[in-house]
């Protein structure tokens, strides 16, 4: 199965008050941790608001600049999907989830089986990210608009598969306070 | 017919000795003249060596950064083609041809008819650019490698259509001397 990761890094980080993707977690910028978790996967990084700041960290990546980034996440998903339209599935990856690992990504991908329109990771039954979307849903994914993510098209579908994972599939950085929590988790795990 | 323009702006400009795309012709950077000639066409700009310098001029464009730009033009064409793989044809546009106009581009596109695998503009019978490539040739275009352009796959084909245009389809800027010639043409036309 050919899988392409659409790495969403175009946002303004308004609730964070700036570019959260270069904040350091475990001595490494958040975005580079996420890219490491995608090691071995075809991918394209979608940038927008902070293209100039991010570029120096991404010189080995295929990058798409989304001029419509202010119109929300769906515009970035749509551009990434154009790039992977001949693939079997895409993985929609939020770059503000620095605790995601290569093992988690592989676990999500491995959970795919015939008949799944998507694979969603859960923790204690709560749905998280990143989400794998099979090509049967590409047309619906293309029709999304505004600041909504891929999970929007999965509501009420009975063919969505889930896979239980650790808490990392629920932990994202929206605010500076979230970053502090993530740093505490990383420090505790180190000790 | 859905046509997407792949705007090639990733090169290092070695023979020019730097970034030729921001050189001014008729008070306007070369790359912006070319984008103006593509007004009304779907397009994606492929950048590479000079991404940081070019970005401020391209904030309203969909841009793909090609991390393989040192491996030549074919790597940029391939990335652009991924984006337009569901289109009927692509226009391969060299950004160092600042005398191309919207009229010329429309003339090339209008010359397409059933049975053309491509449309190549000519001046006095000499083949120039930009070239329109129909989707029947997308697989071959994807297989190009190294620093070769789309015309490589057209050699010896009997289904390549041509359309006679002005000298602008032959005039590109490879060296500083070429730029001087272009400036002389523009100044003469103004007088």
TrEMBL record, chains A, B:
Pfam families: NTP_transf_3
Boundaries of every MobA-like NTP transferase domain copy: 5-157
Superkingdom of this protein's organism: Archaea
CDD domains cross-referenced by the UniProt entry: GT_2_like_f
Keyword S-adenosyl-L-methionine applies: no
Taxonomic source organism: Vulcanisaeta souniana JCM 11219
Keyword Transferase: yes
Protein name in UniProt: 4-diphosphocytidyl-2C-methyl-D-erythritol kinase
GO molecular function, one term: nucleotidyltransferase activity
Keywords: Kinase, Transferase
């Amino acid at each position: 199965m050919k899988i392409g990761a659409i790495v969403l890094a175009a946002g303004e980080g308004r609730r964070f008050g700036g570019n959260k993707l270069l904040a350091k977690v475990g001595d490494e910028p958040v975005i580079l941790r996420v890219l490491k978790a995608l090691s071995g996967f075809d991918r394209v990084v979608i940038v927008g608001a902070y293209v100039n700041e991010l570029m120096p960290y991404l010189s080995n990546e295929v990058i798409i600049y989304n001029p419509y980034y202010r119109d929300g996440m769906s515009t970035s998903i749509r551009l990434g999907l154009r790039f992977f339209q001949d693939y079997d599935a895409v993985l929609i990856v939020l770059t503000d989830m620095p605790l995601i690992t290569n093992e988690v990504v592989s676990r999500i991908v491995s959970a795919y089986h015939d008949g799944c329109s998507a694979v969603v990771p859960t923790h204690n039954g709560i749905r998280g990210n990143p989400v794998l979307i099979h090509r049967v849903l590409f047309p619906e994914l293309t029709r999304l608009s505004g600041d909504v993510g891929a999970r929007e098209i999965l509501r009420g579908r009975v063919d969505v598969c889930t896979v239980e994972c650790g808490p990392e599939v629920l932990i994202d950085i929206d605010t500076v306070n979230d970053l502090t929590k993530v740093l505490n988790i990383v420090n505790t795990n180190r000790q």
